[in-house]
Amino acid sequence: MKLAYWMYAGPAHIGTLRVASSFKNVHAIMHAPLGDDYFNVMRSMLERERDFTAATASIVDRHVLARGSQERVVDNILRKDQEEHPDLIILTPTCTSSILQEDLHNFVNRASIISHSDVIFADVDHYQVNEIQAADRTLEQVVRYYLDRCHRQEKWDQFLTDAPSVNIIGIFTLGFHNQHDCRELRRLLRDLDIEINQIIPEGGSVEDLQNLPKAWFNLIPYREVGLMTAVYLNKEYGMPYISIAPMGAVDMAEWIRQIQKNVNTLTLSSSNKRVDYEPYIDGQTRFVSQAAWFSRSIDCQNLTGKETVVFGDTTHAASITKILVREMGIRVSCAGTYCKHDAEWFKEQIQGFCDEILITDDHAEVGDMIAHMEPSAIFGTQMERHIGKRLDIPCGVISAPVHIQNFPLGYRPFLGYEGTNQIADLIYNSFALGMEDHLLDIFGGHDTKEIISKSLSTDIGLIWNPESRLELSKIPRFAREKVEINTEKFARQKGIETITVEVMYAAKEALNT
Amino acid sequence: MSVKIDETLTVECETGNYHTFCPISCVSWLYQKIEDSFFLVVGTKTCGYFLQNALGVMIFAEPRYAMAELEEGDISAQLNDYEGLKKLCIRIRKDRDPSVIIWIGTCTTEIIKMDLEGMAPKLEWEIGIPILVARANGLDYAFTQGEDTVLAAMAHRCPEPEFSVRERKETSQNFLTFHSRKKEELVEYANHPSLVLFGSLPSNVASQLNLELKRQSIKVSGWLPAQKYTDLPSLGDGVYVCGVHPFLSRTATTLIRREKCQLIGAPFPIGPDGTRAWIEKICPVFGVEPQGLEEREERIWEGLKDYLDLVHGKSVFFMGDNLLEVSLARFLIRCGMIVHEIGIPYMDKRYQAAELSLLQNTCIKMCVPIPRIVEKPDNSNQIRRIRE
C-alpha cells in the first residue's frame, strides 16, 4: 500500500482502450464496475471527438460478484456484434475485475463461435504493467493475431511493394501531439518519395494488418508504444525498423540517413535508383527549419549555459535533453523519466548530456530534485509545470501526462523539421517569460487600478457589517471586486447605508431583472 | 401526509449498460466543503487515475485527498492491511493534521472484503483522530450517491442534542411566535424544534437557503455536512431533518432509523418552483404560515423571461447519470419545455415521493404528457429511442 495522488502513467486498461479505439471499426468491451468507463468521457473531451467512443462496459455489480458474470459478458459481446458490426471486439478487464479471476478467455472463445466479428481477450497483467506497457502489448497482440491467422490460412502475399514504402507504428489516440506528428511525418515521407503502406493503430483497419509485411521497413516514432510490434515483425518477417525519434535537427538527419540506408539496401536487389538524401537534409536543416539558425542568433545566446531540468517519457525526455545540449547550448542539470521499465536505454542515450539522471515515478521525488537544482527552466509534464508554478520557475510541457491545452487545435508537431521550430519556440518562450516576470518584479510594473477603486468606495461611506464582510471574503478573488461593486451600486440605489448579507443576495437577484 | 403515485407515472427498470461516474467522485467536492477533513480512498490505479482526471488542475492545489494505492501484495493478502493503513494515517496526521480522516471504500476493497469498518475504530483509538468509513463503490452506487454514503456515515458522529428532548417537545406544542414585524427589519425566530438540513452545498448557497427560512422565521440549527467537521449539528429524537439533494436516500434512512429524527419529505429546492414548494412543505411542520412566496417566485420567473422564450416548446431527453434528473426535468417542464424520457441510475420512490408528485402536478399544469422514467437505462437503447 502506498500513498499516492498523482500518477504519470495510467492503469493498464487505459492503454488497451487507447489502442482499441484508435483502430477503425474495433469495439472494446470493458469488464468493469460502474464508473470505470471514464475513458469514453476523457477521450471525447481531450480529442474533441464528435462520435461516441467505441467502448462499452459490461457492468460488474453485486450479482456478478455473487454468481459470476456467466451469460452477461457473452451477451454483451454478441449484442455489440449485432449492433455495431465491428471487425474486431477486444475484451479487457480493469484492475477490479481482474481480481475476480473469472475465465474471460472462455467467454471470448464461446462468443467468437457465434459472433461475426473476431473477438480477442486483451492479455495484460493489471498489477504489473502500466498504461504505456499495456498499449504496446495490446497492439502487438492484435497485429500478431491477424498475421498468425493469415499465415495459418496461407493467404499471405509475400511480395514487397514495388516502390519504397513504410509502416508507421505507434500513432494513437490521446498520444502527446500524435496527430500533428503524424501529419508532419507524412509530409516528410512524401518529400523523400516514400509511400506509406499503413499507419497503425490510428485510423487503421484490422483487415489490412495482413499487409503490414509488404512494406520495406517500419518506423517507430515513439519507442514506448510500438516497439514490441516492430520486434515481432522483425523476428517473424525479417522487417527492419527504425526506432529513433525524428526530433531535433541532429536526430532528424540521423533518422533520414537510416531511411536512406534501408531503402538502398532493398533497392539494390531490384537495381532501381539509389537515393541520396544529403542535399535534402542540408536544405531542410539550414533553410526550412529556422531552429538551427535561430539557436545561433544573439537572442539565443542569452540562454547559453543556463541550467534546466528535463523529465518525461523516455522518447521526449531523451530527445529534448539532446536538443537543449547539442543544438542550443543549454545545460541540463538533471534529466529523468518515469518509464522505469526502459531505464537502461534512457541512461545509455543521455549519458554525457546531463549531470544527473533520475528514474522515478514518484512526483514528490521529482519536485524535491527540482527544488534542489533550482534550474532557470523546466521541461516536463503538467506535473512539472505545477511544481514550477509553486517554485516560480518557468516550465514548458514536453511530454504526457497532459491537460487539454496540450491537445491544441492548431498544428503543433514535435517531430520533423516543423517540430524543430515548435520546440525552439517552446524553449525560448519558456525562458523569456521567466525573465519577464523577474523584470516586472524589479521594476514594480503591476497595475495601479487597485488604488483607484479603493478611493471610490471610501467616498460613498457605505458600511459592510462583519457578517457581510465574511461572506464577501468567501467569494473567489477574481469575482470579488465585481460583487463588491454591484452590491454597493444596489445599496446606493435603494438608499441603504449598511450592507448586510441580505443586501448582498438581494443585489445578486436584482442583477437578473 | 402520504403521497400516492398515480398509475400514469410509470417507472421502469431497464438494467442496461449506461454511463455514469464512479461514486468516489464525491471526494472532489466534499473535501472542499468540509474544510478540516482528509479523504483517503483505498483503491487501485484505476481509482487514482480517475480522480486525477476529475480533479483536473485542482490536483495540484494540494487537495486534502490521497489514494491508498493497493498493490499486488495487498490484494493477495500477503501484507497486513491494518499496518499499511496505520502507516499512511500517521503520515497524514503529521503532514495535514485534519480533524477527521474519511476512508472511502472502493470496488476493490469490496471484492477483497477488506474490513475497513473493523479496522477504523481501533486505528482511531491509536492515532487519536476520528476515522469515518464510507463505502462509495461502483458495485452498489452511482456518482452522487457517493455523497450519500459519506453523509450517512457522518450522521453517526453527530452529537446528541444538549437539553432533554422531552422538554423541547412540550414547549413546542404551544408554537408561540414572537414577532416584531417592522417593515425592513428581520423578525426573530418562531419557537420550534430543531431543524437540520442535510446535503453538501457551497456555503453561499447554504446561506441563501438559511436566509429564505429565516424570512419565514424558521431557524436552521445546523447542516450536515457542516463547513467544519468539528461543527456537526446535534441530531436525535425530536430533531427535524430535511434534505436538499434528491440522491440522499440512505442518509435520510439513517437519520430516521438510527438517529430517530423526523424527516420532512419535500420536493427539492431546485428552481424557483422547487424552492417554493420546499419552503411550503417545511413551514406547516412548525406551524408557520409561509409569506410572500408566490410574489417571490413570480419575480424570479420574470427575470428569466429571455431564457424562457428561448427554450419554450423545445424538448429534452435525460440519459441519466447523476440522480438529479427528476428535479431537473420538473424544473424544465415548468420552464415550458417538453421532457421525453428521464433516465436515472436509481430512484428511491419514498424519498423522492414529494418530488414525483410535484412533477406530476407540473405536467398537468403545463399541459404536457408525463415523461417516462427509466431506472438503470441502456444508453444504446436510449439513442435508438431518441432517433425515433
UniProtKB/TrEMBL annotation, chain A:
Q: Give the transmembrane region(s).
A: none
Cofactor binding remark: Binds 1 [4Fe-4S] cluster per heterodimer. The cluster is bound at the heterodimer interface by residues from both subunits.
Q: Cofactors per UniProt? A: [4Fe-4S] cluster
The UniProt keyword set, sorted, is:
4Fe-4S, ATP-binding, Chlorophyll biosynthesis, Chloroplast, Iron, Iron-sulfur, Metal-binding, Nucleotide-binding, Oxidoreductase, Photosynthesis, Plastid
Name the chain's protein: Light-independent protochlorophyllide reductase subunit B
Q: In which pathway does it act?
A: Porphyrin-containing compound metabolism; chlorophyll biosynthesis (light-independent)
Ligand binding (substrate) = 434-435
According to its UniProt entry, the function of this protein is described as:
Component of the dark-operative protochlorophyllide reductase (DPOR) that uses Mg-ATP and reduced ferredoxin to reduce ring D of protochlorophyllide (Pchlide) to form chlorophyllide a (Chlide). This reaction is light-independent. The NB-protein (ChlN-ChlB) is the catalytic component of the complex.
Question: Family assignment?
Answer: Belongs to the ChlB/BchB/BchZ family.
Report the enzyme's class at the first EC level: oxidoreductase
Catalysed reactions, as listed in the record: chlorophyllide a + oxidized 2[4Fe-4S]-[ferredoxin] + 2 ADP + 2 phosphate = protochlorophyllide a + reduced 2[4Fe-4S]-[ferredoxin] + 2 ATP + 2 H2O
State the active site.
299
- Where this protein primarily resides, as one coarse class? plastid
- Superkingdom, taxonomy of origin: Eukaryota
Q: Which GO terms describe its biological process?
A: light-independent chlorophyll biosynthetic process; photosynthesis, dark reaction
The record's HAMAP family line, in alphabetical order, gives: ChlB_BchB
| Residues in the signal sequence | none
Residues forming the Nitrogenase/oxidoreductase component domain are 12-431
Record-linked PANTHER family: LIGHT-INDEPENDENT PROTOCHLOROPHYLLIDE REDUCTASE SUBUNIT B
- Quaternary assembly: Protochlorophyllide reductase is composed of three subunits; ChlL, ChlN and ChlB. Forms a heterotetramer of two ChlB and two ChlN subunits.
Q: Where is the Light-independent protochlorophyllide reductase subunit B-like C-terminal domain?
A: 464-508
Cite the binding residues for [4Fe-4S] cluster. 36
The record ties this protein, via SUPFAM superfamilies, to: Helical backbone' metal receptor
UniProtKB/TrEMBL annotation, chain B:
A biological process term (GO) from this entry = light-independent chlorophyll biosynthetic process
Q: Which SUPFAM superfamilies match?
A: Helical backbone' metal receptor
Residue ranges annotated as coiled coil are: none
The GO terms this record gives for MF are: 4 iron, 4 sulfur cluster binding; ATP binding; metal ion binding; oxidoreductase activity, acting on iron-sulfur proteins as donors
Keyword Hydrolase belongs to the record: no
Domain spans labelled Nitrogenase/oxidoreductase component = 22-384
The answer, when asked if Chloroplast is one of the entry's keywords, is yes
Alphabetized, the UniProt keywords read: 4Fe-4S, ATP-binding, Chlorophyll biosynthesis, Chloroplast, Iron, Iron-sulfur, Metal-binding, Nucleotide-binding, Oxidoreductase, Photosynthesis, Plastid
Task: Give the protein's recorded name.
Answer: Light-independent protochlorophyllide oxidoreductase subunitN
Q: Species name for this entry?
A: Chamaecyparis obtusa (Hinoki false-cypress)
